[in-house]
Write a structure and sequence with these properties.
The chain has 203 residues and is mainly alpha-helical. It has 9 helices and 5 strands, in the order H-H-H-E-E-E-E-E-H-H-H-H-H-H. A hairpin with a 4-residue loop joins strand 1 and strand 2. Helix 2 packs across helix 6. The longest helix is centred in the last third of the chain and has 17 residues.
Length: 203
């Protein structure tokens, strides 16, 4: 079930994650409406600071090997073909990524193939850890409990309630069809119709 945060709840969350280990993970997920596999799959070569773009073209998923061990695996594949997308870097997001780069590497340049989000040993971060830490943040700050994936829905909610056309929401989230976007967020779109009705009533 889709359970997005409201704008006020999003702002409260952004305040709560200040200084947290997964602050940037949450920020990028919320701002760009990314899937967990997409945000963890961002590598340094995905970020183009000169062109101010962020490419979503890689993913990190949990897999079980032949011995029953849970492993993290990077893949040059996403859920749908439409999930491959290039998104703009705002000045704020760009600054946050640059700060993260300096925190990890100082004045050195990271390997283009390296992942932005890694654990203490430099390995791919565990997707399950991210979801658990997200839950801990919500509980510690008495915020309404939602799934990590609901950050993606929260992004859509912010766009739709701001009257962003559905086709633009579709492209931002990487849905294969506008019908998918309309089906998932029809109740949010209906709320904007209520706003339109109130506007017309006032006129």
């Amino acid at each position: 079930m889709v359970s997005p945060y409201s704008p006020d709840e999003c702002n409260a969350l952004l305040t709560a994650i200040k200084g947290n280990k997964i602050e940037l993970v949450i920020l990028l997920t919320l701002f760009y409406g990314l899937r967990r596999s997409e945000v963890l799959g961002i590598r340094w070569k995905s970020v183009n600071l000169a062109d101010n773009t962020l490419q979503i073209n890689h993913s990190v998923v949990s897999v079980i090997d032949d011995n029953g061990h849970l492993l993290r695996e990077g893949r040059n594949s996403l859920k749908k073909k439409s999930s491959f997308r290039t998104l703009p870097l705002t000045d704020f997001i760009k600054a946050q990524i640059q700060q993260e780069c300096f925190r990890q590497y100082g004045s050195d340049t990271p390997s283009p193939e390296a992942y932005i989000f890694t654990n203490k040993t430099g390995s791919i971060i565990n997707p399950t850890y991210v979801s658990k830490e997200f839950k801990n943040i919500l509980r510690q700050h008495n915020l309404r409990e939602i799934r990590f994936h609901d950050l993606r829905h929260s992004c859509a909610n912010l766009l739709i309630t701001s009257r962003t056309p559905l086709v633009e929401v579709q492209q931002w989230l990487g849905h294969s069809s506008i019908l998918t976007t309309a089906d998932i967020y029809s109740h949010l779109a209906y709320d904007t119709k209520i706003q339109s009705a109130e506007t017309l009533k006032k006129i």
